[in-house]
Amino acid sequence: MAQHQAHDSHGHGHESHGSVKSYVIGFILSIVLTIIPLVVVMNHMMGETGTLVLILAAAVLQFIIQLFFFMHIRDGNGPRYNVMTLVLGIVILLTIVGGSVWIMMNNMVAH
């Protein structure tokens, strides 16, 4: 009987990590956000700038979906160290990418 209770408590704790429904929703949204830019690019449905904006928007949305549906960034009642670490990583990433683009643009002007 003790093993049965331990198994039930483990199953209950495991349930908080996500349900099959949330995984299926996340998977379907990820597939849709992959197919839309692919169809637009393959059929030349938009101009170059519009296609780039669509791809970037789909990538950002897919990133957010991955965080919420698969990495469970919103779950848990404890300290939000994962969220703070994620924000710090994004700030560092944007600083590096933004600084690199800025340097490359200024080098193009200098020549």
From TrEMBL:
Belongs to the cytochrome c oxidase bacterial subunit 4 family. It is a multi-pass membrane protein. The chain crosses the membrane at residues 23-46, 52-71, 83-105. InterPro entries: Cyt_c_oxidase_su4_prok, Cyt_o_ubiqinol_oxidase_su4, Cytochrome_c_oxidase_bac_sub4. The gene is cyoD. Keywords: Cell membrane, Electron transport, Membrane, Oxidoreductase, Transmembrane, Transmembrane helix, Transport. It is found in: Cell membrane. This is Cytochrome o ubiquinol oxidase subunit IV. The keyword Nuclease does not apply. It comes from the Bacteria. Pfam families: COX4_pro. NCBIfam families: CyoD.
